[in-house]
Model the fold of this input.
Amino acid sequence: MRNIGDLHFQKEILPLFDFCYNEFSRDVLLRLLSEIPDVLDETLARQHTLKELIKNEQLYRPFSYSRSEVNEVYTYVKDLHISDFDTAAGFLTIHFLFAGRKRRREQARLSQLVLFFYKIDRAWFSTLRPDGFPWEFQNSVKNIQRIFSDLEIGKYQAILHRHGLTISDMARLIRMIEQKCRSGEMDIFWNDFFMFEAFLSISKGILKHHFIFPSFVDEGVSIKGFYHPLVKNPVLNSIGIRNKVALITGPNMSGKSTLLKAIGLCVTLAHLGLAVPAEKCELAFFDVIAIAIDLNDDLLSGYSHFMTEVINLKNILIQARQSKRCFAIFDELFRGTNPEDALAISQKTIAGLTQFRHSCFFISTHLHQLRESTASNSHIQTHFIECRVIKDKPVFTYTLREGWSDLRIGQILFEREGLDELLK
Done:
């Protein structure tokens, strides 16, 4: 179970890693950021791939190509696959000899293919040693390098540079490409190439934003110096949870939701095999990741906000009772019902969540009455986001502290804005 919609990956997180030059690679990138592996080995393989890419400094020299280049070459290869050329020896030579317009068109498209393949080979693949990568990515790199070698891209680029492709050059190249299309090698090549560029794009994002790779441990979540990457001049916070439940308090506007998003983002990126916005991160590998921050009424299903919360909690509990490791975030748990109900069921929920030994739950709340009922439970740890009142004005520090916040700033803001006078 993976419920990370509230992190807004496509809108907010994808741009941090999007350095792709074409839409095909961008689609792969989006898939890599959407599909969390079910097993730790796959996550570690992704992490290993990115670490190896980052080691190859030559991959990050200034280089680019236009979207039209890859689109036109990709289309041309597809066209060759379904073309009506008779590729029997000698026929293409004769065909081009008498079909001047078609010869010039094919010559231009073949030249573009050679130049494009030569460009990306020189920039990325000619000096890349695949042996250090996980075997699947290693095979992809070798497949790409083999295609460039079989098509003798370097040789034909030199011919183009000297005098251009002759009719016999064209005929030979077309036959080789068409044969690789029929064998399925070109389809594999494109899939491998788009996957490579998607991983390279992620590695560029990691380097640009100075993210760090996490480590996986047996239990809990410990993150030092974490932040949300979309916040300008963020305050770095740290948290370590070995207990089952962490309660987070603080007044409105203190930054609880942003802090929870930052924690959820670190956990999710780690499970995706990516680096995270933090100074250090150690965490368990969870079977279930569920982040409930922006829950709204589910109009299509006819659920109210409260019922949406209840169903979300139920789905997580079903997984937890099946001994699955669960990581869940609940922002303002049960805010969709009245305070009396919210307090009663929050007490039951928090106490019940502590029974799941290998799971971690982060809950923010405004229910100050929970302080007394949870104080004696060693499986619950409490944190608050600091806020100070200076001259009747709240000053938000966005700093996470251990303990509990009893600060209520609603009345302060109400009076500061002169509502008492307006209501007299």
About this structure: The chain has two domains: 2-209, 215-423.
